[in-house]
């Protein structure tokens, strides 16, 4: 399928959206082309701006080596369509998007472009949800793109859900994370990622080191925040979500430690996704 017309996130004018959705190529603020898809809420009569105004839009960010075409992300996105319109996209360096992955740094601009697109399509309420690397990115996005002084088509989010995210950088305490660091930092690992996983990784180290998730979390309030983590996560043990929760505002943050849950979108059961959708509905109710 063609990725569709290119959309400048700075514009409020966008192509029309049908009831079956729309594909687009978004330009980030730093000039990277991002493949994105929009699906209206299930049962919506059409994708018009009038219909979108009172409908929540959920921007869903995948984990490292994922993309909008991966079955796990498509399954998760479909689970939310009873409650919201859904925007999915492939991070830079992933799938058909341009650029190279910076493993959580510049990806903030990818989320910002997707949120701007959702608002340009007419949605007054936009939430972000991220898995694993995407979970760290939506935390940092919410901290760096706050609602203050931003207009209607701005990049701020109205609620954040972070699933299976790390709290801090450079963690190597599990075998899974040691393998990931090999893939990111070694030339052979980057070759394997590019050829086998369709993930193109930037070869240069961070400079400067970006704001960490745990440093970002205190900056998110008063935006509602949900942290979700499994007690069988093979990448990040439970000290990561607990550290994030301790840094967050207790008035606006909830923490769910899920028994038996593994890691990110691949392990998220329908029941968990449904409860997350319910949480979003409670925090961002339909306008009366």
UniProtKB/TrEMBL annotation:
The keyword DNA damage does not apply. The keyword Hydrolase applies. InterPro entries: AB_hydrolase, AB_hydrolase_1, AB_hydrolase_fold. Pfam families: Abhydrolase_1. GO terms for molecular function: hydrolase activity. Residues 57-154 form the AB hydrolase-1 domain. Keywords: Hydrolase. Residues 1-22 are annotated as: Disordered. Transmembrane segments: none annotated. This is Alpha/beta hydrolase. It comes from Streptomyces ramulosus.
């Amino acid at each position: 399928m063609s990725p569709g017309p290119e959309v400048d996130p700075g514009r409020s004018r966008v192509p029309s959206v049908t009831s079956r959705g729309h594909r687009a190529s978004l330009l980030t603020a730093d000039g990277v082309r991002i493949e994105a898809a929009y699906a209206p809420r299930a049962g919506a009569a059409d994708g018009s701006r009038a219909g979108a105004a009172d409908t929540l839009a959920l921007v869903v960010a995948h984990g490292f080596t994922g993309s909008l075409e991966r079955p796990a992300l498509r399954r998760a996105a479909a689970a939310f369509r009873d409650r919201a319109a859904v925007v999915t996209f492939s991070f830079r360096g992933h799938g058909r998007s341009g650029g190279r992955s910076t493993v959580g740094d510049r990806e903030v601009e990818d989320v910002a472009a997707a949120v701007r697109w959702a608002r340009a399509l007419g949605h007054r309420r936009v939430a972000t949800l991220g898995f694993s690397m995407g979970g760290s990115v939506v935390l940092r996005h919410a901290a760096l793109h706050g609602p203050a002084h931003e207009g209607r088509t701005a990049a701020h989010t109205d609620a954040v859900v972070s699933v299976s995210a790390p709290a801090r950088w450079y963690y190597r305490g599990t075998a899974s994370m040691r393998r990931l660091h090999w893939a990111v930092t070694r030339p052979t690992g980057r070759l394997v990622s590019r050829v086998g996983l369709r993930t193109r990784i930037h070869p240069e180290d961070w400079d400067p080191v970006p704001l960490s998730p745990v440093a970002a979390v205190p900056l998110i309030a008063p935006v509602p925040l949900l942290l979700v983590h499994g007690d069988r996560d093979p990448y990040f043990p439970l000290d990561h979500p607990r550290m994030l929760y301790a840094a967050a505002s207790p008035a606006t943050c909830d923490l769910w430690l899920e028994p038996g849950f593994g890691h990110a979108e691949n392990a998220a059961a329908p029941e968990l996704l449904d409860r997350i959708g319910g949480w979003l509905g409670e925090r961002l109710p339909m306008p009366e």
